[in-house]
Write a structure and sequence with these properties.
The chain has about 110 residues and is mainly alpha-helical. The chain contains five helices and no strands.
Length: about 110
């Protein structure tokens, strides 16, 4: 599951870490009171951008989970799984079918 963990690690680095840093700065410097307007205008958009980036990366990782699992397990049909995931993953049945296919071991 290393590729899956790498995707979530990337999501944390891109979105969650800056958001946590800005939240920590907000809580330590102003202790719950409102920050000065100049600081609020700078920090708030960056925090929102970090949260949106984390949401986008986490959503992409969840959407492509069947393809990531197939690549991690070195499934011989990983190209087909990726194709199914790309074309029909938006439907719940297509995503479930791709995940089941990725989790099944091929017969020797």
């Amino acid at each position: 599951m290393k590729p899956l963990m790498a995707m979530f690690g990337f999501a944390a680095a891109v979105g969650l870490l800056p958001t946590a840093v800005f939240l920590l700065i907000d809580l330590t410097l102003w202790r719950g009171g409102p920050p000065p307007p100049a600081v609020a205008e700078f920090v708030q958009p960056l925090a929102y951008a970090g949260m949106w980036a984390a949401l986008i990366v986490a959503t992409a990782a969840a959407y492509f989970a069947p393809a990531i699992v197939a690549a991690d397990r070195r499934h011989p049909g990983k190209a087909g799984i990726l194709t199914l995931n790309l074309l029909l993953g938006w439907t719940v049945l297509g995503w479930i079918a791709a995940l089941i296919w990725a989790l099944n071991r091929p017969r020797a």
